[in-house]
């Protein structure tokens, strides 16, 4: 199925201009150029059209299109765990729980299982640890020297119903405490009312407040009502400089789904075609099994290509997912499934 059958934008797609291209940092030649905010383009937004039937048919065929087994599946799952934003976002979080979570992020799979898989001497850790602002400093201290970034949820997470000025101060405070990634929630009212300029201005402010920290824009797709709203909100956030677009807070009634994922990935593809910048994607909420992780990896690979299977462009916001991946890897090595309580994460 071609991209035009699912997500279509009126008007020609412009090639990347010289003014928006950027070279990777000299000290990290493998890095991608960071997304740069584009001028607000109402025509681009208004021209978006969605074909829900085509999207549903595409998603329905997902598991029948590709299946990985045995060693190949173990390899895909090892890759998946390196893309996990290992998360604790509960009202009863404590500093000690966050430290335990960080220890699990550093060593996500038992050494004997890794050795049996041929990874004894290869460092393997999760993509990040994601916590509330209150625990950013604790996580930064616990992860010192590991290379694992700390992500902070911000802007009045999860509802985003605090004054705009306080949202910016919260972002700035988390960055000062050492967070190198900020997961921000958009004001859903802007998207539901079609106030796309307001959403653009809000996201632009979030990006500026974050400075060098990368910004993941949480759309709360389960509350946006239509796939067209999801597509437009995705585009507006990328247009305003978001480094990632993320489905959900994990607190909505409906969180990440393959259907909204497909729409968001098609918008990422369209954005790259027009601007030259690659934007990352993060499903969050409900991705709790290895099977689901493989589904999302398959969508990423088929829709965007191999580059989007790396943690600089793909994250999975999860807490219990890691335990199931570890169970599947242990089963691959031993032929036996273990109980979940043998794989604590925090």
TrEMBL record:
Write out the pathway annotation from the protein's UniProt entry: Carbohydrate degradation; 2-deoxy-D-ribose 1-phosphate degradation; D-glyceraldehyde 3-phosphate and acetaldehyde from 2-deoxy-alpha-D-ribose 1-phosphate: step 2/2
One GO term in the molecular function aspect is: deoxyribose-phosphate aldolase activity
Listed InterPro entries = Aldolase_TIM, DeoC, DeoC/FbaB/LacD_aldolase
Cited SUPFAM superfamilies:
Aldolase
Its EC top class is lyase
Q: Where is this region: Disordered?
A: 1-26
Q: Does the keyword Lyase apply?
A: yes
The EC code for this enzyme is 4.1.2.4
- Origin, by domain of life? Bacteria
Catalysed reaction(s) here are: 2-deoxy-D-ribose 5-phosphate = D-glyceraldehyde 3-phosphate + acetaldehyde
Keyword set includes Lyase: yes
**Pfam families named in the record:** DeoC
Q: What are the record keywords, sorted?
A: Lyase, Schiff base
Q: Which family does it belong to?
A: Belongs to the DeoC/FbaB aldolase family. DeoC type 2 subfamily.
Name the chain's protein: Deoxyribose-phosphate aldolase
């Amino acid at each position: 199925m071609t991209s035009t059958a699912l997500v279509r934008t009126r008007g020609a797609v412009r090639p990347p201009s010289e003014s928006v291209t950027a070279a990777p940092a000299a000290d990290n030649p493998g890095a991608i150029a960071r997304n740069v905010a584009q001028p607000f383009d109402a025509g681009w937004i208004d021209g978006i059209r969605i074909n829900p039937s085509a999207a549903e048919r595409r998603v329905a065929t997902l598991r029948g299109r590709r299946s990985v087994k045995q060693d190949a599946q173990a390899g895909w799952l090892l890759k998946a765990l390196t893309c996990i934003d290992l998360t604790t976002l509960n009202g009863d979080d404590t500093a000690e729980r966050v430290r335990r979570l960080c220890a699990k992020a550093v060593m996500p799979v038992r050494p004997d299982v890794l050795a049996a898989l041929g990874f004894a001497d290869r460092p393997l850790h999760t993509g990040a640890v994601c916590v509330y602002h209150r625990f950013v400093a604790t996580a930064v201290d616990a992860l010192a020297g590991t290379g694992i970034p700390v992500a902070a949820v911000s802007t009045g997470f999860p509802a985003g119903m605090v004054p705009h000025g306080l949202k910016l101060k919260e972002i700035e405070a988390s960055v000062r405490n050492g967070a190198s990634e900020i997961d921000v929630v958009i004001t859903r009212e802007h998207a539901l009312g079609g106030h796309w300029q307001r959403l653009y201005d809000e996201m632009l402010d979030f990006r500026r407040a974050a400075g060098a920290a990368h910004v993941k824009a949480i759309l709360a797709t389960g509350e946006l009502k239509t796939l067209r709203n999801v597509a437009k909100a995705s585009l507006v956030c990328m247009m305003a400089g978001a480094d990632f677009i993320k489905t959900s807070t994990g607190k909505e009634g409906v969180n990440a789904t393959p259907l909204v994922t497909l729409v968001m990935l098609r918008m990422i593809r369209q954005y790259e075609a027009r601007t030259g910048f690659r934007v990352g994607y993060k499903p969050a909420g409900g991705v709790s099994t290895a099977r689901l992780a493989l589904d999302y990896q398959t969508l990423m690979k088929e829709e965007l290509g191999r580059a989007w299977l790396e943690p600089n462009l793909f994250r999975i916001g999860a807490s219990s997912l890691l335990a199931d991946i570890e169970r599947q890897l242990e089963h691959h090595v031993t032929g036996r499934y273990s109980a979940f309580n043998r794989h604590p994460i925090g």
